[in-house]
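2024-03-11 09:14:02 INFO receiving multi-entity request
2024-03-11 09:14:02 INFO entity count = two
2024-03-11 09:14:03 INFO echoing inputs for audit
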Amino acid sequence: MNRRAAVLLAILALLLAALPAFAGNYLLSVATLILYLAFVGQAWNVMMGFAGQLSLGHSLYVGVAAYVAGGLFFHFGIGPWAGLWLAMLACVLLGAAIGFLAFRFGISGVYFALLTIAFAEFTRIGFDHLRWTGGPGGMFLKVAQRDQIDLAHFRGPPEMYYYAMLAFAAGALALCAWLLRSRAGYYWQAIRENEEAAQALGINTFRWKMVAVMISAAMTSVAGVFFAFYYNNIFPEQIFHISRSIEIILGPIIGGVGTLFGPIVGAALLTLLGDGITELLAYYDWEIPGVKQVFYGVVLLAVIVFRPNGIWPALARRLGLCK
Amino acid sequence: MSFDRRRFNQTLAAATISSLAPFGIVRAQSSKLKVGVLLPRSGVQGFIGQSCQKGADLAPAVLREMLGVDIELMNADTESNVDTARTRAERLIQEGAHVLVGAFDSGQTAAIAQVAEQRGVPLVVNVAAAPQITEQGYKFVFRNFQTAIDLVRNGLDLIGDLFLATHTVPRTAVYMHVNDTFGQAMTRGIGALLPRRTQLPFKIVDTISYDPAARDLTVEISKAKASGADFLLLVCRLNDGILLRREMVKQRWNPMGIISPGSPGMYEEQYFKTLGKYSDYSISNVPWYNPKAPLTKIVEKAFLKQNPKDKMVFHALNVGFTFEALLVAADAYKRARSTDPKTLADAIRQTNITSKMTLGAPIKFNAKGQVEGIDSACVQNFGGIPRVVLPAAAAETKPVFPAPYFKKT
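2024-03-11 09:21:47 INFO inference complete, emitting structure
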């Protein structure tokens, strides 16, 4: 990171830290959503961007973690911080199972992606029939009055959720930066570029792909626990749906797959674009349902056509942030 | 469209205002009651959200006439997405909404309810059946709609009433249901309540579930026909309902009738358009408006004025309950004479609306914010129109059961 990049990052961090002081609740909820998407995008990026393993079923980890932590809280009063570890363990085991099935039997590329979708889908069906979690009727966590911060139970005003998500997103960025420069990071990049060549160089590709899947699953589980305690209601249909997986991957794809800041830029752009279009349409009294989605689609198409590697690499060059 | 400098400046100004609004710099002032209406007008639930919106759109004029109060709608599309529902609710409150109404889906409604509770702005739920919404101890959340269990209970009770009214005693039923979230929930409700309904003379001889995306129901209908059941108890959605009825015609299976204990599909416009005469005699027991209520006539007139090519009967549930949610807000505003959300919430708690549109007891919220005693109607299709046949007090015509096409196997 050059000096200019460090200064810009520090300014961004200061701005984000000070945001609740001057932003209303609406802007804060949008910012929380951006950080949430940036975080899960970062988690997905470990698997796809770093190690080259395409997952289209990351909603699986969000859902399982939300249900594990939410269920423990709902039934036994176990707080989210303890629940987080169990949720993380469940997701790591699930990720390991998927990874083992795929990598042991040479499933890769689109077939691996299909496997991840299949896991998310049959988990959804499983939870639809699981009475302990409320089945299709969903699980509603008890909502307390949120005037005061209760960190132990992760209950509090919107500012608390914002700062928590900011901390998670910053932590994920730091972890990914470290991973990318670690031995694992170099192995993953070698596997991503040419798996046979990496294997020929002596890299245990099975092991390192498994590590990538498990780290990605563990990171995503944090987002799942956050989701459960932020929204306080979980429905299988909603949380395991493929649209949620797509939502997770759109940010890094638009921002730049395999880059550190791509998921953050992508999440910010997509969320602000969505809300910006809504505001503009409302200003012009264009109350035509679906118009926003059309605009949104056109803009995404333009980004993909004109910036196939994502926005961040070009933006970084333009801002002089590359070494 | 040319994009000259003036146009560019206008757009830039609009964008600037839009971007400043979240910071609270731009605030509109109004003496009207501002009602934030949150509905899924796009996305997977877009069709139903737009149907509900028709009930909201006609409300300001009708309520001005009825109660002499001015309300201003602030519409927001939740895009059938829980994240958007939450941020839109925040936005509406920030823009000055005094009351929120919405949001058709239980997940989205629950997300909005949290925002409403935290900001101390009343939320009047139009349609959402998850019982937990009013079981959370919220002080600002009110619901004028049946809970899921009430939906099944009323649906089953009406089946008993139907048999009494038509002097029929079917002994067996085959139960078919769509295998999705809704179908599973209904099945569980039926499983829990049916054994306790001793007045119902029939027993279920077979249960057949099918995929919501099924393109062919040949096997399922063959199986149902082979069961020899007297009638078909059906929990469906629209597309599968059409597919299923077509297959029944194809396989010449003519049971005493098709009865839904509380699902959509068979009373919807597309069902009639696609099936023509074969849509007739299907029965749905669902929350409905009272066609004889004076308020229904007023709302129907307003509906036809706004939608001259449409029929309100095809939006009955959505228009009825969305309009009533706005009626609750306007009535509270009239009594409270204030737009202060806390005063409005207190006024909503004191609501007692006897002249209402939908069936059932007066709109009166219990300590949890739930209206009790909302009834369902037994709605039967005749000549391409769903008509209320029970309860007798609201009936437009008499029920026909068994259906004329019935052939004993």
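2024-03-11 09:21:48 INFO post-check: Chain B touches chain A through 50 residues (CB under 8 Å).
2024-03-11 09:21:48 INFO post-check: The longest strand of chain B covers residues 203-210.
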